[in-house]
Amino acid sequence: MIREMTKADFEVFWPTFESVINAQETYAFDPEMSFQQAYDLWCESPLKAFVFVEGDQVLGSYYIKANGMGPSNHICNCGYMVAEAARGKGIARQLCEHSQQVAIELGFKAMQFNSVVSANDVAVALWQKLGFNIVGTIPSAYKHSKLGYVDSYVMHKQLGH
């Protein structure tokens, strides 16, 4: 089930969030950020945040926000995280599909991912299957904990008609 995220949900999700940012393989977030900084970034700054829950477990989450201001506020941006034990079960796909529907309901005309780490093959392939195109490559934009400097992609998809 996907629903809006509460602070209690984020508390359950925090170990996943912390694990993802500490791995330094997919997100350009400070691995030293506090719980409150992470909560503000993921839940307070965006327009909305959602969770994928199964029983009392939070298996994944995403946020949605405008990618720009003023004349660019018709394009949204999202970030997704899935608990390590739940990966490979289609949760990211469900979260992304849900986020696209929410984006359309909120009036967004397109969705853009500003920095998809090129070494994140699973995410790149999934986003492409879901209709996102690589519209730009930022050379050596991400310092991967295992691979060193790798490229990041800007990915984009028009929504609706």
From TrEMBL:
Top-level taxonomic group: Bacteria
Top-level enzyme category: transferase
Ranges for domain N-acetyltransferase: 1-160
Keywords assigned: Acyltransferase, Transferase
Coiled coil: none
UniProt GO MF annotations: acyltransferase activity
Keyword check for Transferase: yes
EC number: 2.3.-.-
SUPFAM superfamilies noted in UniProt: Acyl-CoA N-acyltransferases (Nat) (SSF55729)
Name assigned to this protein: GNAT family N-acetyltransferase
Organism field: Litoribrevibacter euphylliae
High-level lineage: Bacteria, Pseudomonadati, Pseudomonadota, Gammaproteobacteria, Oceanospirillales
